[in-house]
Write a structure and sequence with these properties.
The protein has 464 residues and is mainly alpha-helical. The chain has 17 helices and five strands. The chain has one domain: Growth Hormone, Chain: A (Up-down Bundle), CATH 1.20.1250.20.
Amino acid sequence: MVTDTAPPNLAPESSSIAVAPALTTRPGRWIDGWDAENHAQWQLQGRAIARRNLRWSIFAEFLGFVVWQLWSIVAVMLPAAGFDLTTGELFWLISMPSLVGATLRIPYSFLVPKFGGRNWTIISAGLLLLPTVALAICVSNPDTPFGVLLAVAALAGFGGGNFASSMSNITFFFPQREKGWALGLNAAGGNLGASVAQFVVPIVVTIGAAATLNLPLAGWIWVPFILLAMFGAARFMDNLSSAKADFAGSAAALREPHLWLLSLLYIGTFGSFIGFASVFPKLIADQFPEFSAIGIGGASVSLAFLGALVGSLARPYGGRLADRFGGARITMLAFATMAAITLGVLATLPLGSFWLFLGCFLLLFAAAGIGNGSTYRMVPIVFAIRGGGTGDVSTQRKAAAALGLISAIGAYGGFLIPQALNLSFQSTGDYAVAFLGFVASYAVLLLLTFFVYVGPGRLGSDRI
């Protein structure tokens, strides 16, 4: 039943603020009449609602990234736990969650309009119980076949799919002028899950374990937090009736050439972040095994978590810089920096200095994180311009679909980078060829950004 009363936690209307379009609520925490672009409604009611939804969206997405990246650190620890696996098999366990997660992002981007942001957050968080429990069971036995391990690693892709639905949901809650910062916070909070997984898991599975590893805890410890995310979403999040999309609108987004151009840029930025985050523990273990696990008290810590941490913290600043200076310019700067630093990694590897290696990679993660935020910020602006600059609901829905699709395509970088490194190692015995390929790719993407969005003949707006 539709009511004419304000939703819970809404401030009463103030005579000092212009009359705003009325918000109404329905059972199931559905909100009607939402218009984030209406300044009066935003000031009076919208901001508080949007921020509450953003907080729980960040927490749920954070857990999604935790689950998505569990195998990046668990795979490296399997040989010490008695599993007999080849280097190639370990790379497949590391990259399989990214392959599945990227693919799931495509359908996930359509599910918020269908089920509602709150409702789908409950469901998608609940699905994370499958890969965590399955991981806990399968790593308890060193005789578990590789095929079973690979299938369970594939289930971790559920965590990667959460990003598309979460970002699509949040874009409906915030006005254009604040989307960059809000999306950056949402993404950064999620991205932090990769760092937390790589930091917490080695501690939990080694503390008090003496000479053995208690690998099942790598899955079990996240179950209570997943249940909390499901409860928080059910209790505090909302569904927006205006957050609608149809397959015709999504098909229109797929026909937009800029969707594919922006997807390439996102492969270069987010794909680099998630790909290097996934493989960083393995790179450290291969190049500097003495630093793979540092003993502190009765536990072990892997410094690999610093990469994902730096990249995650840098992401919202990429969005904020894009709001101020233009996403295309910041993206160009990110690609230039990433290319230069990757060359630095190649130059420092023969020196055998772990701290130089770590420092270069942290700078690479920071540049990729800034590029993540700036590229993602470009998407709604490009689609608004292509829609005539009206910013109407149809254009916003098309942009929301594009955000989900671009995040899906970009996430394939999380599969391509580990596999490129694997191919280079299997072919030549080192990773130099793969790193040179990454440098060439960043250079091409920099030129693409310049000629399409910055230089002469660009799309036609300094806002991009």
